[in-house]
Amino acid sequence: MLKHGEISTETDKGPFLFTLAALCTSVILAVVILTVSGLTAVNITIRAFLGLMALASGSVLFAMLTDYACVQDGILTMSYLFKKRQIAIKDIGSVRFKDDVYTVYDRKKGKAGTINALATGIDRVIGELNRNHVNFE
């Protein structure tokens, strides 16, 4: 679901649909309660919690959609939230694995970016890096 290329990580369908359902449900219930009932303390509290649920679900959904890594035309693209980094595979110095995160370093030992090791399809991305003789530490 939501692939960014032939060799890429993708968003898991189950958590994506669950988060999307939580967002839709909280928005729909907030609108229904807003239009059907009056301004009692209980209704205001319920609307506040539904609003918080909508904000949290929207944030998680946005993070899920922007967390990916892909390899296209010899370039590794790593994206998370508002940070999108690209590096040519031939310019990768090493890749280190720690705490379920692959950290990619360039040849000058500078940090080029990170990849979520728990993402669906990470095996294809790591396999492609391995086929291109990237050093894993």
Structure report:
With about 140 residues, the chain is an alpha+beta fold. About 45% of the residues lie in helices and about 30% in strands. It is built from 3 helices and 7 strands; from the N terminus they run βααββββββα. The strands form 2 sheets. Strands 1-2-3-4 form a 4-stranded antiparallel sheet. The chain has a 3-stranded antiparallel sheet with strand order 5-6-7, with no helix packed on it. The chain is elongated, with a radius of gyration of 20 Å.
Overall form: elongated
- Termini separation comes to 30 Å
Mean residue pLDDT: 88
Please write the string of helix (H) and strand (E) elements.
EHHEEEEEEH
Count of separate DSSP helical elements: 3
Structural class: alpha+beta
